[in-house]
Amino acid sequence: MKLNKNLFISLMLLVVVAAVYRIIPNRPYGFAPQIAMALFGGAFFVKNKQWAFALPVLSMFLSDLLYQGLYTMGYSSIQGFYSGQWMNYLLIASLTVFGFMISEMKIGKVVLASLGAPTVYFLLSNGMVWMGGGGYNHPKTFNGLILTLTDGIPFYQNSVAGTIVFSAILFGGYYFLRNAYGNKQVA
């Protein structure tokens, strides 16, 4: 797909809106659009894979930059940048692979990817927290791993819900626009 000016502007607006949404106060933690963006990017940018990986990572980076600014000014207790953060960027980018499996953008594939991607993220991110000590400092035993996973369940539930909602918005919006323009490329 050729990346024209209108598509580029639309994607940048998507990235900015998603980044700003992620820093909204009192938003349920984990209920964010970045995993859905990774899925959509993977499904949408079949030929330009660099854009597929860039969408969710750029959005996360911008929101982390905003978080850091708010933290520095004393408006937020959440730091934007912290040690080990690169692993979250790597995990989010890797979820784009789930999007590559949605080549035909069929609803069943979108639903499966919307359940699978946050599940993989949950297991890997919490596993890394457990292995690295993270904020929980649970023992490096099987029970410690289970405690770490248990601590993350509220985030996981919100992540699955957010991914389903934002996937419905992104994929549904694309489907609507594609059909509204007579199956022409929306780009």
Could you outline the blueprint of secondary structure elements for this entry?
Layout: H1 5-22, H2 34-44, H3 49-72, H4 85-94, H5 96-100, H6 107-132, H7 142-151, H8 153-180
Top keywords for this entry?
about 190 residues, mainly alpha, Arp2/3 complex 21 kDa subunit ARPC3, 8 helices
Overview of the molecule:
The structure is a single chain. With 187 residues, the chain is mainly α. The chain has a single domain, classed as Orthogonal Bundle (Arp2/3 complex 21 kDa subunit ARPC3), CATH 1.10.1760. The protein is built from eight helices and no strands. The termini are close together.
Mean pLDDT: 85
Straight-line N-to-C gap: 8 Å
Radius of gyration: 17 Å
Q: Structurally, how many domains make up the residues?
A: 1
What does the main sheet amount to? none
As an assembly, this protein is: single chain
Note the run of SSEs as H and E: HHHHHHHH
CATH class bucket: Mainly Alpha
What is the percentage of strand-forming residues? under 5%
What does the overall shape look like?
A: globular
CATH domain fold name: Arp2/3 complex 21 kDa subunit ARPC3
Number of helices: 8
In short:
The protein is mainly α.
